[in-house]
């Protein structure tokens, strides 16, 4: 049986063999990249007040964030094939620092949307190469390595949103974003020093041309890749809608204070610190189908239960059950990373991530529009119904 002790033992072994500094630097980048993205939901009520946003327009802002993140996946993969994985990650962190600066400067609403889109695109450059770099560095335990790195991301989700909330409540919403600017610069320096400019052999990638695009499409058009991408489309849409509005739901429907709501949101990701390494290790040991069936089924049940419960401790319990969905990311990404042929690894992963994230990015604005019509509770039933589609697709997913 997999335990958290098994995961930490593997992490210590990887550190001792000299690869730990690479895992640490990439994990720090992911900690900051995704942690700041998840600060948007807890700061959303402050942005609604400052800019006069409705739930629908607030959902549109989140859609812009995730759509830009989706669009940037493919350029990130292509760039990594050209200039190297380590260099691309440094560019991502530096550009993120600049876009956060634009958000903090404020201005008209359109500037908020533009700066948010730039931030999503900047962090997208990191999204693909973190996976391919770890696959290069940890070829024999890619699931566990991705799980450990993903857990660092959930640590960022756990720590950074509450810090952002405290700063926004105590000072101003701009401080909720602004404190991360120096952190992005520091992580960029750490990646520059620790991660090789290129982790792959430099022979990957296809030409930027119609023939190159057709070659990439033909290599990706396999049963394994098509099905895992379809499953991830469903899972990603549910994840983006849920995380985008959970703090707002807790405040507007359950009656919790902003601080308590952000704390529960952080708790959701705190559970992910354990779920993601366990999910990655489960992939290595029992395969994707069985792991994903438990993960997607359990989180779907929790989404159905959520509207029916009230009170702090019942909400804590359901939050823990919903957090099972976080373990699915490590499973899907490990499967996807190994399924994509080596000759198009970065470009192929970028293409797939752009596809499933672009489709999934529509979910926050749809969820917000449903909630605006007075159906906040029913929107969670819709997410549960969508989750069931992934369970059906699992029946045809080949094991690797």
TrEMBL record:
It holds the Pfam family MFS_1. One of its GO terms (molecular function) is transmembrane transporter activity. InterPro entries: MFS (IPR011701), MFS_dom (IPR020846), MFS_Efflux_Transporters (IPR050189), MFS_trans_sf (IPR036259). PROSITE patterns: MFS. Keywords: Cell membrane, Membrane, Transmembrane, Transmembrane helix. One of its GO terms (cellular component) is plasma membrane. Its main location: membrane. It is a multi-pass membrane protein. The chain crosses the membrane at residues 22-44, 50-71, 83-104, 110-129, 172-195, 220-239, 259-279, 291-309, 315-336, 348-367, 379-397. The keyword Cell membrane applies. Residues 22-400 form the Major facilitator superfamily (MFS) profile domain. It comes from the Archaea. It is found in: Cell membrane. PANTHER family: CHLORAMPHENICOL EFFLUX PUMP RV0191, PURINE EFFLUX PUMP PBUE. This is MFS family permease. It comes from Natrarchaeobaculum sulfurireducens.
